[in-house]
Amino acid sequence: xxxxxxxxxxxxxxxxxxxxxxxxxxxxxxxxxxxxxxxxxxxxxxxxxxxxxxxxxxxxxxxxxxxxxxxxxxxxxxxxxxxxxxxxxxxxxxxxxxxxxxxxxxxxxxxxxxxxxxxxxxxxxxxxxxxxxxxxxxxxxxxxxxxxxxxxxxxxxxxxxxxxxxxxxxxxxxxxxxxxxxxxxxxxxxxxxxxxxxxxxxxxxxxxxxxxxxxxxxxxxxxxxxxxxxxxxxxxxxxxxxxxxxxxxxxxxxxxxxxxxxxxxxxxxxxxxxxxxxxxxxxxxxxxxxxxxxxxxxxxxxxxxxxxxxxxxxxxxxxxxxxxxxxxxxxxxxxxxxxxxxxxxxxxxxxxxxxxxxxxxxxxxxxxxxxxxxxxxxxxxxxxxxxxxxxxxxxxxxxxxxxxxxxxxxx
Amino acid sequence: xxxxxxxxxxxxxxxxxxxxxxxxxxxxxxxxxxxxxxxxxxxxxxxxxxxxxxxxxxxxxxxxxxxxxxxxxxxxxxxxxxxxxxxxxxxxxxxxxxxxxxxxxxxxxxxxxxxxxxxxxxxxxxxxxxxxxxxxxxxxxxxxxxxxxxxxxxxxxxxxxxxxxxxxxxxxxxxxxxxxxxxxxxxxxxxxxxxxxxxxxxxxxxxxxxxxxxxxxxxxxxxxxxxxxxxxxxxxxxxxxxxxxxxxxxxxxxxxxxxxxxxxxxxxxxxxxxxxxxxxxxxxxxxxxxxxxxxxxxxxxxxxxxxxxxxxxxxxxxxxxxxxxxxxxxxxxxxxxxxxxxxxxxxxxxxxxxxxxxxxxxxxxxxxxxxxxxxxxxxxxxxxxxxxxxxxxxxxxxxxxxxxxxxxxxx
Amino acid sequence: xxxxxxxxxxxxxxxxxxxxxxxxxxxxxxxxxxxxxxxxxxxxxxxxxxxxxxxxxxxxxxxxxxxxxxxxxxxxxxxxxxxxxxxxxxxxxxxxxxxxxxxxxxxxxxxxxxxxxxxxxxxxxxxxxxxxxxxxxxxxxxxxxxxxxxxxxxxxxxxxxxxxxxxxxxxxxxxxxxxxxxxxxxxxxxxxxxxxxxxxxxxxxxxxxxxxxxxxxxxxxxxxxxxxxxxxxxxxxxxxxxxxxxxxxxxxxxxxxxxxxxxxxxxxxxxxxxxxxxxxxxxxxxxxxxxxxxxxxxxxxxxxxxxxxxxxxxxxxxxxxxxxxxxxxxxxxxxxxxxxxxxxxxxxxxxxxxxxxxxxxxxxxxxxxxxxxxxxxxxxxxxxxxxxxxxxxxxxxxxxxxxxxxxxxxx
Amino acid sequence: xxxxxxxxxxxxxxxxxxxxxxxxxxxxxxxxxxxxxxxxxxxxxxxxxxxxxxxxxxxxxxxxxxxxxxxxxxxxxxxxxxxxxxxxxxxxxxxxxxxxxxxxxxxxxxxxxxxxxxxxxxxxxxxxxxxxxxxxxxxxxxxxxxxxxxxxxxxxxxxxxxxxxxxxxxxxxxxxxxxxxxxxxxxxxxxxxxxxxxxxxxxxxxxxxxxxxxxxxxxxxxxxxxxxxxxxxxxxxxxxxxxxxxxxxxxxxxxxxxxxxxxxxxxxxxxxxxxxxxxxxxxxxxxxxxxxxxxxxxxxxxxxxxxxxxxxxxxxxxxxxxxxxxxxxxxxxxxxxxxxxxxxxxxxxxxxxxxxxxxxxxxxxxxxxxxxxxxxxxxxxxxxxxxxxxxxxxxxxxxxxxxxxxxxxxx
Lengths: 411, 411, 411, 411
Description:
The structure is a homotetramer. By secondary structure, chain A is α/β, with parallel strands linked by helices. Chain A folds into 2 domains: about 1-55 and about 310-410, Aspartate Aminotransferase, domain 1, CATH 3.90.1150.10; about 55-305, 3-Layer(aba) Sandwich (Aspartate Aminotransferase, domain 2), CATH 3.40.640.10. Chain A has helices at about 1-5, 15, 45, 55-65, 80-95, 110-125, 140-145, 150-155, 175-180, 210-220, 275, 290-305, 310-330, 355-365, 390-410; strands at about 20-25, 30, 35-40, 75-80, 100-105, 130, 165, 190-195, 195-200, 205, 225-230, 250-255, 270, 340, 345-350, 370, 370-375, 380. The longest helix of chain A is centred in the last third of the chain and has 23 residues, at about 310-330. Chain A starts with a helix and ends with a helix. The interface between A and B is large, with 114 and 114 residues. Strand 1 (about 20-25) of chain C pairs parallel with strand 4 of chain D, so a sheet runs across the interface.
């Protein structure tokens, strides 16, 4: 570990939680340089929905490389991008009767959110964005202003303005009336920015009713309704979008993480055509917008959604994860553990950051990679690759259960 | 082009300047789907220092993929990252007696700049950053505040605060005294953020004297001196850093674009150890910080700097580019063209955005990809791959010369 | 009216509502240059608690002038200021066992609020202030940020930052918990700034319970609890402070308007000694802080509070005002009029800005000066001098009643 | 002094410099409660241009009081205000062929500046105001943002935004071009706000040439040109406006301090009619805008300007002050004292705040009230009443000279 300690910045975090040097990885397994194999419930923080080194993607990428495909194209047109767009339109948008324009922003989630905020402010001519407690949207100043956690916010070193914070999941009684009152002192919102499931915030799951209320509130105030589906989208919940079937019609949808499929960066905003036309060419740019490898892998990822079998599998495995966690919670009823989630994003809220930290460490010792989220990291978040085998899934949960038993007994 | 027009966002820009669909690319050549080949003087906006589909990198990447290397690792430790770090330390830092900690930020330039601003504000406890007219540092709100161009700034939709703007290259007479005066009304700066060569801003080259004056000003005011070497670094000027040999000692150096080598994203800040220790673990994060493919390709890129021969070649080709442009300027002395640059970033300032636009179009017609920069895009910027063959370089400049002749005659 | 139309700024407002030229005034009567007499229910927007040209004050001022008293002293010590301070301590503070330091700010309410915000931010080291919908605190940028009304806010021309807005009178369930959660994304408050009765905001009267809840919330979050008693204080409600007897213990109390007594400017903050010591000398200044005439008149005003008889009279007259308004409301039950107030600040909420405007105009026609407040001016606000005679009070309400009858019938 | 120490806020400043309790005052003399008489070179910080208890004003005020004149009128029309306006138009504006609308803002300088900034931002639709190092414009957040001194700025507790700071008196070479360049990163200014003589800032006198350059710069950029003549206007420099005869044509002129004449508050903006029409009625308000006593006294003040004799006297006395100070400076050439000023505002820059403080203290001991200004208070500022007798003026300077000799010798 010397090289990292000596030369890499002290800001690094996950290497302290998973203190080894990884050498290879395949589907839901990572192997360190000593040959030790770990089951991966961390899933690249939501990126690796289709597993490490997904075979189909790997094959497609190597072919692309060997054919001298255009690896880097900014926002020029390439055949690889066209293939991706066509597949996305056919596989995802058409079956849902969706009509959106696709913007490839800088290839990270934070860049997608920044671009979404820009277009919302441009369309409405307003500054203030409504975001939510426990929300996470990125680290650059525009999206960081929408992120709730103090630890990240304090690193900004400047006031984070132009955001009004509401309580996630809290009913909006009378809000539209308050905003309509010219003596309320409330800034008219440019946008409402929400995650349907707050992943980093603690696997907090919004109800359909509340999301519809939010959408109506956006309509009433003339704000854009933006869903940040960066971690919960791309199949994670058992549907392609986390809000499929809820009757929602967002103005902008932010995607990243799982959209590229292989772990190489890609980010894409879906924007209603009537809003998109407010952009002028090149007004929001970024060097790495056109990622050939990510387009190729992302195109392969879309094949998983050509029929419903893959998502059915996600639902089945998600139900099992939930059941097992409910069991664990029941066994430890004295701790008031709480299970939350949808599909294959499941959280076990231990209500106790210290306990959670010890469980994470014990899991690592026993060959499972899992991370904490929520305030003080007190929620154990399970986001294995959607392609994980039943055996690995079961074994991973066994390790988790044992770790919890051990830690909880000692507490 | 239909798919892009129908489904891709109107914000796309370069596809309008280079209106074709690219299918493959090799070193300094891009080929469209009709088989037409273009010489590339655009170089992925500074990313493709080692050419499209660089053979050595391609080979290394395919091997990495076939061995199931860890493609995505956030800030966990991997063998691929260690190889990169070791090579960077040995090849770049040690020969220069440099001592920096390396931070892999989110993999785009704007993310590197945002992280650099955070650490500067953290270290100094101050808010205000000094940036320069014509500077370009990215599109997210923190770095956009430092970017000078109105077209980009207006897209923010919110006031861009906490930045004081000075004139690039303008002497700093009396500035330190002014800042020391408690009645000056000037905010003490957290950082001075500067490009040694403003690439997007119009290929404006700072003198060594001015940069040393700036560095002294930073010392006098207690600000961090940050060089954004994202476009001008990684060999572009004929040295590894654009400021090599100037006797500068920046507190933070921002790198991206060329550091990954192949066109896949990577960004890295070099931070003086005494500043780096102000970070707390995980305070600045980002999903795509650990890019295996980029580490592998970037490690290959570093081999070009193991001895001086590659950089000698850059200097030789750069000198030729400059000579040819000087000749062109002389032929059109009536237009007061101006040539500026260093190594293989060279700009021809036509002083006329309309003329420049026509030249770009004429070049494209004749098989050369070249972009404009500076106010109204009036400066033709030549940043071919450093690995371009002499023949392609000459042919490209011939095409440019003919285009200028044609357009200038018609004007 | 020519001179005003020709030379005075278009920004003037009240002269349009009361379109005549006033020449003299005495207690609750103003007389215009044509000799027409008006009963004054407007009371100088809350300044003239002791009537126009209060005889005792007038006498004291003339004596002061004839003795060459110090009319203007900034924050130097003068005998006139000492007399005022001593009387305030003896008459107001000691009977209430209050311990506050007195700060004479620039002599307008907005200046007092700005100073209060400064000390709160200094004491806490925080930026954000909690203020309320329908609140009114002044027109300069610091206090305007706390003012809710859009009409005033839009005139700023800059974003009004560093204020979080809550709904006036709305229960604070779970707020302290939310603020204690490091993932709430809520800025820790420097202060809670509240009027016990929102005068400009529509005569909205806070309950004792809610105010105590607010005070507890301030304690829980470490914020200063600031009561802006500028319009409701100095005897207006039948007590000296509007919150007398509520068991409140504010950190800062802002006074202005009635404190000077005669209509000449004065403003004074009462600050808990432990907070006051955070000021450095001269850090918050202002040319007109030491107003000799206002000190002399203000000292006379304090004599009204040496025993309870004056306040008893206020309570009696206030009760009568309320009864009469309740009667009027009852007669017009079809309009859902609502009566709100305390002591001699009483509002009749007509729920209809157009109707209210017509009533104001009809009153003026018939010799009564009265103003509207609240959203669209829909609330008729009665704030006659506390010294008004029973006859003038009755006659004024008769005029009002007739006007309402006339306007309501026509509606 | 006990009462003040015990009950008045620690923020008070001047009472520490002049540690006695004043009881009466007449023209250029203040007398403390022990009967000690002081010559007043402090002049109420520029308010008392016509002396303490000016006989003509005192008489007019008492008559006004005895006739029950309207002491407080907000922005209603009164005969007293009309008299003032008519006199101002006839005496000041018409002889200068000026055409301005008069806005009576809240009656302090800071309120006038806040109103001026609002109208400038409204007219231009821009946010950023250009202000100058060493400038002083008030303590409320809008004007404080324009004030340069750190001591005052730090008390804000929030970032002071929307102001760009330039160096006072520094040539503007190339500024208009820089602002016209869309890649300069400079915000287009809403206004340029300048004092022709920075009084609090250290008696820094702008040249006519620089002011004309500024005005041209404002025109070129479409900004409003605002002169803050609050301390230097109303006769102080030997002309009514400090910029009389310079060929300037400001868009807005801010007046306060001397405009009311007697020491009671008044503030007035003069606004070009084409700008004034951007106000909506009542958009900028304030309780104490209509000050009857100040109108009456201010109307008397205007009589001093009906012919040139008074201003001639100011010029003569100002010249004497300057000569005497030059002599003093010459005697102490070893200290590099510098004399600056115009008319009866004269400053002796001692270049040493500690020395200056001792001189102020020694003057007080010997019966002279004088204040320091500029960085660390190093500049002794002489602003006696314009009506001071020759004897008092000479005696005051004698005291000052002796104090300097004593202190300088000891240094």
